[in-house]
Amino acid sequence: MSENFTRIPSRAAEIGGGVPVARTLPSRLRRTIGAWCFLDHAGPAHFAP
């Protein structure tokens, strides 16, 4: 069984009202994944009440 992995670097992006996230998908390295698919990492974040 072959294991093929591709490391895709994330980039800084903002969602919603300026919430910072590290966005991995969509990416130029994976153009076959449509605009409907997102992979974001958010947090830890602290929001004022």
Structure description:
- The protein has 49 residues and is mainly β.
- The protein is built from no helices and 3 strands.
- It has a 3-stranded antiparallel β-sheet with strand order 1-2-3, with no helix packed on it.
- A hairpin with a 3-residue loop joins strand 1 (11-15) and strand 2.
Shape: elongated
- Main sheet summary: 3 strands, antiparallel
Strand content: 25-35%
Q: How many DSSP E strands? A: 3
* Average pLDDT reading: 80
Enumerate the strands of the largest sheet in spatial order, edge to edge or round the barrel.
1-2-3
The rounded Rg comes to 14 Å
Provide the succession of SSEs. Answer: EEE
- Sequence stretches where pLDDT stays below 50 over 5 or more residues: none
Our count of helices gives 0
First-to-last CA distance: 51 Å
Query: Strand pairing plus helix content: what structural class?
Result: mainly beta
**DSSP helix fraction:** under 10%
Concise synopsis of the structure shown:
This protein has a 3-stranded antiparallel sheet with strand order 1-2-3, with no helix packed on it.
Topology of this protein?
Elements: E1 11-15, E2 19-25, E3 39-41
Antiparallel strand pairs: 1-2, 2-3
List its salient traits.
single chain; 49 residues; mainly beta; three-stranded antiparallel sheet; 0% helix; elongated
